[in-house]
């Protein structure tokens, strides 16, 4: 049976940890040529998966250029980008300092913008592609001490729609995946801020999110662009 991402070249940012690592595993299992791009080391995971690791700080446009060039040279094209790298900082309007606010927007929002900008020419050369931006349920509701994170993820959700319209004529689809609380190093560090069980009766796993990302990366979702995909066990569906 042909694998769902057979022969496609995919870049996954933040691919060394958490959900990005789960996406790298799922993509490799579906036949993709994976480039793991992270500010932290993903060498061991890349070796395990037969993938490539490329160091990347998503806030640096020059690093994006060399990443895309390297992926194109290694695999002949860039067909898929998962803008997954992200950070969270807890603090409210009253107390969060400006530098911390700017840093969250720099990584989560500007990083996602730079990624879309960097892969667009390569995807045009490949006659199309699929970009998946990882937002959050914090792109639909606000968290009381998550003012920067909430701002950054609403922006990711909005940019996804703007980019989808702009890039549709080039055959490039742009969609967003919005996880709820998922068991990763990030949510573990958040501790009791993310407690409580969603309506489906369990917390989410990185594999739950990776399954949706694979679908959006593949040609199964060929007529889907500019769309929000919430993966939260029903948590923001309504009042419990
Ligand atoms: N865990 C959750 O509950 C949850 C919920 C909703 C959304 N998200 C989002 O999902 C994505 C992945 O989160 P996770 O929980 O797997 O987090 P994680 O902390 O386990 O992994 C994030 C990865 O991003 C990398 N990274 C951070 N800054 C970077 C930078 N400047 N350049 C390149 N790489 C960088 C880290 O090194 C790390 O490998 C993030 O965008 C996060 O906001 C997470």
Automatic annotation (TrEMBL):
Keyword Secreted included in the entry's annotation: no
UniProt cross-references to Pfam families, sorted A to Z: adh_short_C2
InterPro entries registered for this protein in UniProt: NAD(P)-bd_dom_sf (IPR036291), Sc_DH/Rdtase_CS (IPR020904), SDR_fam (IPR002347)
Keyword Oxidoreductase: yes
Matches recorded under Gene3D superfamilies: NAD(P)-binding Rossmann-like Domain
Keywords: Oxidoreductase
SUPFAM superfamilies xref list: NAD(P)-binding Rossmann-fold domains (SSF51735)
Top-rank lineage group of the source organism: Bacteria
Family: Belongs to the short-chain dehydrogenases/reductases (SDR) family.
Full protein name: Glucose 1-dehydrogenase
């Amino acid at each position: 049976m042909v694998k769902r991402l057979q022969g496609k070249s995919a870049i996954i940012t933040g691919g060394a940890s958490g959900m990005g690592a789960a996406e790298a595993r799922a993509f490799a299992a579906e036949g993709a040529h994976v480039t793991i791009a992270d500010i932290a080391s993903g060498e061991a995971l890349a070796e395990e998966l037969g993938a490539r690791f490329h160091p990347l700080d998503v806030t640096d446009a020059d690093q994006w250029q060399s990443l895309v060039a390297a992926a194109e040279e290694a695999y002949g094209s860039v067909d898929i980008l998962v803008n997954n790298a992200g950070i969270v900082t807890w603090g409210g309007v009253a107390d969060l300092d400006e530098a911390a606010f700017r840093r969250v927007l720099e990584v989560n929002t500007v990083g996602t913008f730079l990624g879309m900008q960097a892969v667009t020419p390569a995807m045009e050369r490949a006659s199309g592609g699929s970009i998946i931006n990882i937002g959050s349920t914090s792109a639909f509701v606000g968290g009381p001490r998550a003012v920067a994170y909430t701002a950054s993820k609403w922006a990711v959700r909005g940019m996804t729609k703007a980019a989808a319209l702009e890039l549709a004529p080039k055959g490039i689809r742009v969609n967003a995946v919005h996880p709820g609380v998922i068991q990763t190093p990030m949510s573990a560090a958040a501790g009791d801020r993310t407690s409580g069980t969603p309506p489906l009766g369990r917390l989410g796993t990185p594999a739950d999110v990776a399954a949706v990302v694979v679908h959006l990366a593949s040609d199964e979702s060929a007529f889907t662009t500019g769309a929000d995909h919430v993966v939260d066990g029903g948590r923001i569906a309504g009042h419990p």
